[in-house]
From TrEMBL:
Transmembrane segments: 12-32, 38-58, 86-108, 128-146, 158-179, 191-210
Protein origin, superkingdom: Bacteria
InterPro entries associated with the record: DUF6498
Signal peptide bounds: none
Name under which the protein is recorded: Uncharacterized protein
Keywords (A to Z) from UniProt: Membrane, Transmembrane, Transmembrane helix
Amino acid sequence: MFGNNQLRKYLSGDMSLWFLIFSNFVTIFLAITQDWSLASIMWVYWFQSVTIGFFNFIRILGLKDFSTDGLKFEGQQAKPTKETQLFSAFFFLCHYGFFHLFYLIFLLSDSSDGTFGEKIGFVENMEFVFFPSLLFFANHFFSFIYNKQREPKKQNIGAVMVYPYIRIIPMHLTIILGFPLGLSLGSLGDILLPFFLILKTFSDAIMHVVEHRFIRKGEDKVTIA
């Protein structure tokens, strides 16, 4: 932990955090000014979530030195070998990927029946999704490069596998719980939409700080059986 002065110094100096906040506010601006449906917004955040997983997959493959404390496969303590690294990377890819595959099916289903607002054909309305998604990709690419120099040289590979879930759960809970509430309030929900988007931005920023300042501290022990 660190004091208020250290926190202010860290926040003011973390360019990846400010890029993340900027990306979120650009999305909020476009959503409001272009009167996006909720489905359009959910597509953008789905792409952001996938992007987070993609760069974490690359991060696992790029580990030069790592520990396996607490990491078990079939009840056996894993050893810090290249085989463990490859298995961990592709296990994460499959597990994280399947979660987002089901999320994708949900979004495609909504794109057909318009549950969360007007129907949004994925191809027909791609202009709503493409630019902010590209902006989030650029943000997380920059964050990957920028924070790589700040991270400990030796990390726990099991902890690295868990980071993205810790990162995205608050973000998606805000969306999943907030949007149905907005729909139930009718026209009032349109007024509250910016509030939920700002809340999502806040949770996104907080989890970015938690991940890069508190969690990525080297050989944190994480038990994964």
